[in-house]
Structure formats: structure tokens, C-alpha cells
Amino acid sequence: MLAAVDHVQLAAPPGSEDALRAYYADVLGMTEIPKPPVLAARGGCWFQAGAVQLHLGIETDFRPAKKAHPGLRVTEIEAYAARLTALGAQVTWDDNLPGHLRFYSEDPVGNRLEFLQPR
């Protein structure tokens, strides 16, 4: 039986780890967590905020998905969007989900991220 989502894996191109760290840690406010040594040898990086984990794995022929994305629940969404904007991240608001405030952003390699808060 399913109990919870353990993590979400996103792909990234080789050599993008520093840009990913700048976005996920500095802009989104997540903490980088160590990868097990056998997995660290493959490159990429992992991040956590509370119970949310995002894993960025290296993919040689990387192309960002245009539609697929993690949906990340946030609190104080307006302040969080202002933080992202102030730190140079694009924020695109979308009011098409009834009962929610939400916006989209992209990481430095083009992965789409959805941020939402129930009204």
C-alpha cells in the first residue's frame, strides 16, 4: 500500500550542479542533503525542505519536460513569490485551479515547478 511520496526526481544536464544549488538552496530556501557515495559519483544533487525532497539527477541528453512538474505546497504564497522574484526567478501566476492560489517557475535548466496554497 502506498503511504507517501518519498521524493520527486528531476533531471538536469551534466555540469549544472552549481546553478541548481544556487536556485534550490539560495532562491527556494531548501537545504542540500548528502547523496549516498555510490549515487554521488553519478553527479546531481538532492534538496530538502521539511518533508519535501527533490532529487536532481544528471541526464546526458537532458531536455526539460514542458508539462510534467512537481506541485509544491507552500505557505504565505504571495511572500514566497516575492522572494523568488526578488532573487531573479520568473514567477507566472495561474488562477485556473479552483480553491487555490498558485504560480509556476522554472529552475535554471528549464524544469517547471508549481507552487500552490489552498485558499
TrEMBL record:
This is Glyoxalase. PANTHER family: FAMILY PROTEIN, PUTATIVE (AFU_ORTHOLOGUE AFUA_3G15060)-RELATED (PTHR39175). SUPFAM superfamilies: Glyoxalase/Bleomycin resistance protein/Dihydroxybiphenyl dioxygenase. Residues 4-118 form the VOC domain. Pfam families: Glyoxalase_6.
